[in-house]
Amino acid sequence: MSHQDFDSSEILVRDIMTKAIISVPGETTVFQVAKMMEQGGIGAVLVKKDNNLHGIITDRDYATKIVCNNMPSDTSVEQVMSSPLITINFDETISAAAQRMTDKKIRKLAVTDNGNIVGLITSTDLVTQLTK
Predict the structure, then answer these.
(1) Number of CB atoms found within 10 A of residue 24's CB
(2) Structural domain harbouring 25
(3) How many folded domains does the chain comprise?
(4) CATH code (residue 118)
(5) Which residue in 27, 20, 73 sits closest to 42, CA to CA?
(6) What is the pTM for the complete model shown?
(7) How many angstroms from the chain centroid is the CA of residue 52?
(8) Which residues are bridge partners to 55 per DSSP?
(9) Which of 2, 5, 37, 109 has a CA-to-CA distance to 73 between 20 and 30 Å?
(10) Hey, CA dihedral for 117, 122, 128, 132, is it positive or negative?
C-alpha cells in the first residue's frame, strides 16, 4: 500500500478500531490509572463523569501534565484528563481519522456510533494499517 493508497483509502474506522474500552471514574488517582496502563499494556483510559464518558487520560499526559508539573500521585484523573473527547464516527474513513488527529495534534480518537462511544482509534492503528 503506497502513501497515495492510504490517503484515498476506503478502509473505515470501524475496520481497525479497538473495541475494548477501559474507563474509570473521575476520582480515580493518576497512580491507579498508571498501574492499569502498565498492567494492561495500554496507552489511554477514558474517564467517566455522571456515568458518561467525558474525557481521556493518555500516557502522553503523564509526561506533559503530571511529571512536568510535579503533581502528586493521588491527583484525580479528572484534574488532568483531556476533555471534551475528540471523536470520529465509526463509518468515516481512516484518512479522515488521520486528518482529524493531525488537525487536533492528538494520537487517539474516541469512536462513536449514534453518539455512543464504541471504541478507540490510535495513530498506531493507522501506522499498522499503512504497513500492511
Answers:
(1) 19
(2) 3-130
(3) 1
(4) 3.10.580.10
(5) 20
(6) 0.86
(7) 16
(8) 47
(9) 109
(10) positive
